[in-house]
Amino acid sequence: MAERHTKKGVALSNVTGIVFDCDGTLLDSMGAWRGLERDLAREVNIELTAEDVDALNVMTIPEVGDYYFQKFGLGASGNDVVEMIDTYMAEHYGTLSVLRPGVKSFVEQMAEHGIKMSVASSTPHHLLEIALGAVGLAPYLEAIVSVDDVGHSKREPHTFDAAREAMGTSLDNTVVFEDSLYAVHTALKAGYKTVGIYDCDEAGTWDDLEGAAHVTFRSFEDIDANRFISGGYWV
Fold first, then answer.
1. Which of 73, 102, 154, 179 could hold 220 in an S-S bridge, CB 3.0 to 4.6 Å?
2. What are phi and psi of 43, to 5 degrees?
3. What is the value of pTM for the model shown?
4. Residue 48 and residue 197: Cα distance in Å, rounded?
């Protein structure tokens, strides 16, 4: 049986649109991002603290660049650090992108049922294009939206809203999939139904994610597509 948590009193007759996060939700890529953060830290001979990791987890890429430059003195500027990040991740996404288990099957089933799908991510747009193209998900998506496209981090709902508006689906019938606890909270406050996909404790512990999202799964393999589409997980 799928390990899940469903909040009572949440009604949803049917799903017409899905907004997916990318890293840690669709892609098994958070290890690459954590490795990048450690590599950048080693460039200036420092070791990231738990507080640093928590802070970096909710930042946009330009904010990460400024953080390394201003706090640790890495690079000639925050933009210089952003270029380092871009080079590292472009290579990873182009050659090493891997979907999380069950993602491709779930996306294909959603497409067969006419469910519209999009991506809303903190990753820069051009890197999302590389990654989602490499794993074959791009053709299924109505839109790919980065926080850079809207000028707001996922601490605010603008990225989710832009992805939903591109699909033309209503707020009441659109579901957000996220692995990051802070982004789940953002989506909830904006009125979205939420599915938590557990990835690692650095994004949010299982217990925290389960306590926040309407429904929580450890894997896409645990989701019954028909039950999901009909709103059965929200009954």
1. 102
2. -60, -25
3. 0.84
4. 26
Per-residue tokens: 54: 């928590």
Q: Give per-residue pLDDT as tens, 194-210.
A: 999 999 888 889 999 99
Q: Which residues contact 87 (CB under 8 A, 6 or more apart)?
A: none
CA distance 141 to 132: 9
Q: Alpha carbon of 220 to those of 90, 148, 151: distances in Å?
A: 26, 27, 30
CATH of range 17-29+98-234; options 3.40.50.10090, 3.30.70.3040, 3.40.50.2000, 3.40.50.1000: 3.40.50.1000
What would the pLDDT profile of 15-60 be if each residue is shown by its tens digit? 999 999 999 999 988 777 777 888 889 899 988 998 998 888 888 8
**Contact indicator for 174, 17 with CB cutoff of 8 Å:** yes
- DSSP string for residues in the chain: -------TT---S---EEEE--BTTTBS-HHHHHHHHHHHHHHTT----HHHHHHHHT--HHHHHHHHHHHH--SSSHHHHHHHHHHHHHHHHHHH--BPTTHHHHHHHHHHTT-EEEEEESS-HHHHHHHHHHTT-GGG-SEEEEHHHHT--TTSTHHHHHHHHHHT--GGGEEEEES-HHHHHHHHHTT-EEEEE---TTT--HHHHHHHSSEEES-GGG--HHHHHHTGGG-
